[in-house]
Amino acid sequence: MDRRNFLQFGGLSAAGVLMTGNLQAHIMKAATSNPKIKPIAGSWFEFQHLLPSEGRYWDPALKIFTEAQWKEKVREISELGFEYLVLQEIALDGKAIYPSKLAPQYKLGCEDPLEAVLAAADEVGIKFFIGNDFWDDCQKGEFLMKDPEMRKFRAKAMEEVAEKYSHHPSFYGWYFPNESYLNPYFDEAFIDYMNDCARVAKTLTPASVNLIAPYNIKKEKCDDKFIKQLEKMNIEIIAYQDGIGVNSTQPGEPAVYFEHLYNAHQKASRARIWADMELFYFEDQTKGNLLPADFKRILRQMEDLSPFVDKILCYQYIGQMNKPGSIAYAGNTNQESVRLYKQYKHWLDSQKA
Predict the structure, then answer these.
(1) Are 44 and 313 contacting, i.e. CB atoms less than 8 angstroms apart?
(2) Which of 86, 159, 186, 262 could make an S-S bridge to 308, C-beta 3.0–4.6 Å?
(3) What is the C-alpha separation between 69 and 326, in angstroms, rounded?
């Protein structure tokens, strides 16, 4: 998820605010009157945040999570009805998250957190998309995509991961995390990278369902050239980032862009269109820690996206939502993540009534 490059497209920050009881009631009433709003179907998931400056409120907790805590975090997420988790990384800065013969291991409190979360996902029926990088600096996206030796290494790593973990029913597919952006089209080098990853994925796990999450939707130009690009991309799901959290777009705007993208996908008859909805705002306007946005904003995002996508995924549960009393708490100390969890769950329960 290339939110690390958001500044070239960013704007001013929208702060998250706590809601009064009256405002909360008003939002719930409006939501109840619009049953076409799709719930959140899944989330990105990480063992450590790619940019330490953004994850200071949850990285320390994640770093010392035990196997039991990782399993509980997956169970906790499943209780909100999430069906999918997208694992951001199997490596970080060249170190493997799991026990690997190819690289030294990134030191965490759990010996094999990947095994822990997949085992828990098996139990609760969650499907994981497994990220296939970062075997070097995560901010060197072009290098990771284009370098021939890196491609060879990534393929070997995917082979190792498939051998160790693809027996899990929860191993649903792969996520290719070196993301492209629309400007207004995909970079051809990205399409080549993505199709190469897909080739390896299908060789190792033929039934895999694979996903990418491009950004900068406001630059979309869904003409014949873009449709032809979609037609040659060997990918099952494209979950476009809505750009709200990084202030590339403002509430209300993504609906226009997603409608155009939806129409292009219909014409291409290729990848399914999902959404990658941003739950956060920046603590320091356009940088720094990520904090949970207010639910009023998030509900508007869900309303904007619902007519045009099959599923809404979010970025992300980790750090931005926590079940009250969780033994796997990861977030800031003022309980904003608990507040967002409770608000979303209240809304979700109201839809089932």
Answers:
(1) yes
(2) 262
(3) 9
